[in-house]
Batch of 3 targets.
Target 1
Amino acid sequence: MDTKIIFSIVSLLFINFSLIQAQPAVFDITKFGAAPNGKADASKAIADAWKEACAAAGSSKILIPAGTFLAGIVNVTGPCKGAIEVEVQGTVQAPPELAGGDGWFNFNHIDQFTLSGKGTLDGQGEVAWKRVSCLVRDITSLNSKYFYVNVLGCEDFTFEGFKVSTPESSLNTDGIHIGRSKGVTISNAKIGTGDDCISIGDGTENLKITKVACGPGHDISIGSLGKYENEDPVSGITVSDCTLTGTTNGVRIKTWPALFPNTATNIHFQYITMENVSNPIIEPSKVKISDVSFKNIKGTSATALTVQLICSSGIPCEKVELANIDLTYSGPEGPAKSECIDVKLTIVGKIPEGCK
């Protein structure tokens, strides 16, 4: 009986001793200089703890204890000598201005890796979500094979002093195309193309175009709209203090007839000078168009029909204003004239004869 009791006690001690030996070595990042105050960068401490843990024989654990730790980009690499675990008990925050690299925590060439714990990894993305502004300044682009610039899905994008130059004979060379973007500004640009100087696609909101010289080219154009199903509305477009020279059109809103519905609203063309421009103002539409104004537009037209606003009887254009349109034509087709169909129109000051 005594022999069996002694054997049982020895066996129990042996099992407990084995369990103790199997516990991983712990590398607490605070022992490597990390401070749980949310201010000092702990990325070096994490990397140093990883380096030692990775080099240690047997299994290892890197512990991020309770507290708040600030950490920039962390890049760690294996292979390691044994299994390795990162246990997060506290909160690790990325700096609000974190930049560079392909990720925040990067674990490369690792085998037998575990990420555990009840802590939190906080990327603090709010600042990045709001800060999406971009700037293109004083750049010249020449002889593109297709569109020069596509601005798609952007916010707060500014072009200042941007120049585009390509022959009038080049096809499909829109200078700047904007779609599904908000808060784009184009100013002091000089654009010469074989297509639209600026084309504005669906989903564009709060666009400001000012002091742009367009020509050669087609025009400054919204659309075409209504070609595709589920297009987003266009709103908040202002084109002002621009000059168009020798273009095939002036300023226009163009749509695909009898296809898919869309809306275009709060659109304003003002203080624009045209020199020998064909079809200076055009608005043919089966898209719902409202709150549109053409104000203080002057210059010379290469065609007798200087203003053409053609909407549909089923979807008339509403709240459209023509104000102080001084466009002259001196060709054989008689004086400058205008045409307005299915438009709820307000006229202020002088406009070419025709629209009422």
Target 2
Amino acid sequence: MNAKMTQYVVPATSLKSLLLLILHLVPVISINITPIPSDPASLESWASTNILPFSARATDPALDPTLVTAEKNVVVIKVRQDGSGQFKTVTEAVNSIPEGNTKRTIVWIGAGVYKEKITVNRKKPFVTFYGEPADMPKLTFDGTAAKYGTVDSASVIMESDYFMAVNIIFENSSPEPDGKRVGAQAEAVRISGDKSSFYNCKFIGFQDTLCDDRGNHFFKDCEIQGTVDFIFGNGKSLYLKTELRQLAKQGGVISAHAREKEEVDSGYNFVHCTVSGPGAANTHLGRAWKSRATVTFIYSFLGPVVNPEGWSDFGNSTNDGTIFFGEYMNRGPGSNTNSRNKFTKLLTDQAAKPFLDINYIKGSTWLLAPPQVK
């Protein structure tokens, strides 16, 4: 049976309105985003064209306007224990930054060990902690969950947006939990602000070393040490070329992700990372702390410390259909997937694509290369 087709003509005014709507919905991105390469030797070349300094993006309309304003107005505060800077402690320097800060404020920290419990509160955005790579300062404290509660036990708490750390050692010096002391877990840092980045930093602790709490975060060339759940929280983070070092010979768990609602956009994505440590085949890459925990390992070297199961549902099989533990093109003795738990997702080329550029964390709108401080 033949049917007549009805043609609808869109008025010119409506077409113009539609085009304007589309232009508003589609972001303008000037930076040329390309996928993270599979070859480790090409990674630095990729970074040099995908993670640019502000000087190369000052007129880029894709950058957050408030970030552009802040980066055009840079303030440097020197912290030196010998008295040659404006302050002798990091706490004093942070306290000097006004609430409602609108300038990129670089706290340039001299060499040394700073035993302080530091908080950068949410009203102080655009703060950078900067150290010299040849003599990195250590920010350390010995807070525990027993004394402060888990989330407030961190030596350094970053609640503000647009935080950056470069060449800094973050440590919680509390002793390793022995299974007998209640509340012995101890964070080195808690990151609760959005759009935070960390370059060439070390995070030292045992249980709960790094609370990747919430927001979009980026880590490159870092080292994270711990024993149990030493990266945990509900952030959405890209870890690039970072070493995850399991310290306990008896093994443990690297990540404990807390996503539990389908509409929440969060996850931990480890790309070109290294899993190392002294144990043998007894460390899980992640566990289902919450029902929709989301963690991926891509292009990474998984050492012999990795348990052949790969992942743990934390003894709750009802979560097996909702958790997302993915792997793609990893290498090393711990990368063999033949004995992986059944809920492991072995990603196809197409499924891996969303995890392979900086817009996994909306990076084109805020991610910048570390500054050159002189």
Target 3
Amino acid sequence: MEWLTETKIPLGRWMRIGVDWLTTNAAGFFDTVSLVLGTVIEGLIDAMQWMNPVALVLLFAALAWLVHRSWRLVLLVVFSGFLIINLGYWKETTETLALVGMATVVCMLVGVPIGIAAAHRPWLYHAIRPVLDLMQTIPTFVYLIPTLILFGLGVVPGLISTVIFAIPAPIRLTHLGISAVPKPLKEAAEAFGATRWQLLFKVELPHAKPAITAGLTQCIMLALSMVVIAALVGADGLGKPVVRALNQVNIAKGFEAGLAIVLVAIVLDRVCKRTEPGSGNG
């Protein structure tokens, strides 16, 4: 066994050298990315906090009604929003919504095209599958360290870490949805002279819509699960009260902040959930 342990492969040192090289030679790029992403998120937060909290809750409830035509969902949105306001966590909730929303947009904009490409090119999916497995299984604190070094303290390293953790879901489910399109359906479209783009937008994507929607919902839930971890690198939101409660062993604050996170998760899940055909509108 000594021959196996006496010469250690310096994987950690190689990683540190790589991060140091990026810090030295690409600092301008990472500073620009941090500035742009930080500005967008701050703009979202300022827009939500500029509005009256009650008016914003009612606006969210109206959007929920337009999407699902369900009074129960509207009542859930109103109840959750008013309870969060009553508990005093509205400011933190808007910060969390901005972070989760931005992370979800980035994940879907990047993940869906990659999933489509992987479904059309099996070799590509086999190549990226180990990377996706690594992104979902490696402890989040591991890639939180290099993102903190590259992007600095604040919301951006939390956003980048959230994207790394959540993006495999839309990639995998988009790949699954596109791959599951029946071959006779595609052959029928091709027989009528459909081009590759027409086949994609009029046959494959509509058929894969349930899977892509499931990927969206999973992406949101995974992003919300990173709220507390993002708070450890300076990201504002509902994660900060949880971290403070943990440091102070404050059961009351921890329960209230945790309940606010749960309410946000339930509301987002119900709003983004695909409406089943024939389901009641109650």
